[in-house]
């Protein structure tokens, strides 16, 4: 949550990356929405497809609001665990940026890049 703790109401962004709060047309914190979108991005990079897919916006919204997704086959247990912390329907329970930066999957990648 940002320093001013101001909730947002603007419904924006690409639908596949939109958090449950946006589909529910609720106010939301930008940082929580960003963590969800990052979770979608990591999932998509590992799986080659979005975690939530549907033929209509209504169906996509229902899937996002349920928050159920399949583990990407190419993902390690650590990567899956990280995604699980980000794709949490209840926004306050989502990982924070500091949690993500200190996660084993991120740190292992940083170490192997050295």
From TrEMBL:
Keyword set, alphabetical order: ATP-binding, Nucleotide-binding
Concerning Gene3D superfamilies, the annotation shows: Transferase(Phosphotransferase) domain 1 (1.10.510.10)
Any one Gene Ontology cellular component term annotated for this protein? cytoplasm
Highest taxon of the lineage: Eukaryota
**What is the protein name given in its UniProt record?**
Protein kinase domain-containing protein
One annotated GO molecular function: ATP binding
Stretches assigned to the Protein kinase domain: 1-106
Q: Which InterPro entries match?
A: Kinase-like_dom_sf, Prot_kinase_dom
Key word ATP-binding present: yes
Q: Which GO terms describe its biological process?
A: intracellular signal transduction; microtubule cytoskeleton organization
């Amino acid at each position: 949550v940002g320093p001013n703790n101001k909730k947002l109401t603007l419904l924006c962004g690409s639908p596949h990356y939109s958090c449950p709060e946006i589909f529910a047309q609720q106010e939301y914190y930008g940082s929580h929405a960003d963590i969800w979108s990052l979770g979608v991005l990591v999932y998509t990079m590992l799986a080659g497809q979005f975690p939530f897919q549907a033929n209509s916006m209504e169906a996509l919204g229902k899937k996002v609001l349920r928050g159920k997704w399949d583990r990407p086959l190419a993902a390690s247990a650590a990567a899956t665990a990280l995604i699980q912390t980000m794709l949490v329907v209840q926004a306050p329970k989502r990982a924070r940026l500091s949690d993500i930066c200190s996660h084993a999957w991120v740190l292992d990648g940083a170490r192997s890049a050295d």
